[in-house]
Amino acid sequence: MPQGREAHDYDLDALRERVMPERGGERSSSIPQLADADPDAFGIALALPDGTVRSSADGRRTFGIQSAVKPFLFALALADTDGAALDRVGIEPTGEAFDALKLESDTGRPPNPMVNAGAILTCALVDGDDPRERSARLLAGLSRFAGRELEVDHDVAHSEHLLGDRNHALAHLMRAEGALSVSADDAVAVYASACAVIVDVEILAVMGATLALGGVNPVSGERVVSAEVARDVVAVMATCGVYDGSGRWMRSVGVPAKSSVSGALVLSVPGTLGAAVMSPPLDDQGTSVRGRIASEILSADLGLHVFG
Ligand code: GLN
């Protein structure tokens, strides 16, 4: 296992310089704020068990968390339902795009919590009588993962809600199948605001570390979720976190992770560390191109591959 000085001394700016010449990928065009993102923004951070958080240049540059929020939504839904969320959402990889209009054929459940359908559902499973209460509860839970008070970019949340036609379609499909008990519009509103939470790579690395380290935030020392919940979430990140690119990712990086349309990636190396990378241009599976290359190099240099 990697550990100690290697991760403490690792040169994150040198890694950044190595991947910056890579020009592949396209920014998401799903909302104006993502289409206008700086294609050359790039940050990478590590969060270690002793509470050390380190980052490259751009480590404090903020961005929308987008789908990198999904593991934490799943964790909070598992915690609030005492694990019963596992009856409401599948845990099998789909081999399809993150927003595919597809539910499990035999049960009508979303296929897993890392695709949009599953995340829309997990948002609806947390405690709260209305969308406002559920959004506030999620934001408080996400803030505990981060060890600081997080905020929502309300313009991004509004765009997500307004322009997320496939998400509305998925919510209606889940209503029709009896999988979703709150109204479709309420469910999408809460999901849209969760995707619009503002983070930077340092914050996201701490969130990833909290899952990697059995549910205890290494900076605040707070237990955020149980060790069992953290384990379940990291297992599903490993199999489903990079959508239809999960197999390739697991072979080449070998670290449970979650990708997102903002170009953010959160990595949770069980028992070892959390990491995050952000670079907006995406490949065909919606994974940051520079983020994937940087993750491959980081994993190889620090010996992070879980099957390594
Ligand atoms: N908010 C985005 C959406 O729902 C999240 C998708 C993603 O990051 N892959 O389309």
From TrEMBL:
GO terms for biological process: glutamate biosynthetic process; L-glutamine catabolic process. Substrate binds at residues 67, 116, 160, 167, 191, 243, 261. It catalyses: L-glutamine + H2O = L-glutamate + NH4(+). Its EC number is 3.5.1.2. Pfam families: Glutaminase. The keyword DNA repair does not apply. One of its GO terms (molecular function) is glutaminase activity. Keywords: Acetylation, Hydrolase. Homotetramer. PANTHER family: GLUTAMINASE (PTHR12544:SF29). NCBIfam families: Gln_ase (TIGR03814). Belongs to the glutaminase family. This is Glutaminase. It comes from Microbacterium oleivorans. The gene is glsA.
